[in-house]
Amino acid sequence: MMIRKSMTICTICLTVLFTTGCWDRKELNERGLWLATGWDVGKNGNIQLSGQIVVPSNMQSQSGSTSGANAFFTISSEGINVNDSTQNLQAKLSRESFPGHRRVVFFGEEFAKRGLTNKLDANTRGSDVSLRTDVFVVKGATAIEVLDLNDPLEKPPAVAGIKGHQEYGGRGDIAFVNFLIAASSDGTRPSLPVIEITKIQTGKSSEGITSEKIMRIGGLAVFNKELKLVGYLNNMENRAFLWIKGLLKKLTLTVKYDDGNASMIFTKIKSDIVPEVSSDNKIKITVKLSGKGAILENNTNLDLNDPKNVDKLKKAFEKESKKIVYKTIKKVQGKYGQDIFGFGDVVHKKYPQKWSSLRKDWDMHFSKADIVVTSNLQIRRVGMTGPSILQKESEINK
């Protein structure tokens, strides 16, 4: 009986021993959960680190009700590097700072212009920080200004940047990884998506129209080899960049045709980059665009029940896509001289022996490269009607 009792006690002890969690584990309600991080230039060239931290008890419930209190707050501090700033910021928090749930990072414009070379080590070295992070440069403003914004649709508001980027069809949470890969490459220069601060009308009062500041997707930030911001591309040029890189998920393209216009959405978009290097190292880059999609809007006098008219629109869309992509590449070549498209990596892959003589001065070779763009687009669907229902029969049969 005593033996059985002793065995029972041992079994209980062993069960408790092997089912107990880590002694040093901290629960989520004991941590300050970061959703977004902002980096700016502080006093005397220091780093100003800002965080948008979630208040779980004030988050919107499933029923849609709120307590009326903010679901987040923004806090910041300065230091000579990231960890020094974090330690100074921790003194303002009653809970341990925890960036493991961070989803987005904002670089203020001035911070990005000064360069990121010696600033990113803490973001890649720590095991508690995910590299699957959306990253933006804040055009014409600071990161903390963005973190202080409210958004009419999203709580916390930093989520608006992430979701807006997803709807835009951009890189999403692989933006930071792509930046790091480009930063370590000789044949690609880094780039990041851009956030701008804009105003929307929220109502009217006796004093006039009331407005509120929100964030919006604002194009692409171009960096050089030293990871310094050198300039921007607009939204359409950013889409051209993403198409070339094979990162664009969807695109709506609008063209003018005679006295009308038409729009088409592409959801299957690809590109192929074909380099040619001559014996005297003259470089030609051919960018072959392809895509499949459907007509969204037809404000022309073309009856799309006729395959010949569909082909006419197809050629118009191909011409427009070639023009946009070509102008984007030439702008980057002439204005910035930074190969953000990764043409150098393609040259390296096809001509590994010649690359050794090209890599050192690749920015110069890229700037002088001959660019050719081709486009092969397919219209898979034209909608429920052939001609526009607003066009007269006489116009359709012209």
Secondary-structure blueprint:
Layout: H1 2-19, E1 31-41, E2 47-54, E3 72-79, H2 82-90, E4 96-98, E5 104-108, H3 109-114, H4 121-125, E6 134-138, H5 143-147, H6 158-168, H7 175-183, E7 191-205, E8 208-223, E9 229-233, H8 235-245, E10 251-257, E11 260-277, E12 283-298, H9 307-336, H10 343-350, H11 352-358, H12 362-368, E13 370-381, H13 393-396
Parallel strand pairs: 1-4, 1-5, 5-6, 6-7, 12-13
Antiparallel strand pairs: 1-2, 2-3, 7-8, 8-9, 10-11, 11-12
Helix pairs in contact: 8-9, 10-11
Descriptive key words:
2 domains; GMP Synthetase, Chain A, domain 3; flat; alpha/beta; 398 residues; 13 helices; 13 strands; 4-stranded mixed β-sheet
Structure, described:
The chain is α/β, with parallel strands linked by helices. It folds into two domains: 206 residues, no CATH class; 164 residues, Nutrient germinant receptor protein C, domain 3 (GMP Synthetase, Chain A, domain 3, 2-Layer Sandwich), CATH 3.30.300.210. The chain has 13 helices and 13 strands. Helix 8 crosses helix 9 and helix 10 crosses helix 11. The longest helix has 30 residues. The radius of gyration is 27 Å and the shape is flat. The N and C termini lie far apart (105 Å). About 5% of the residues have low confidence.
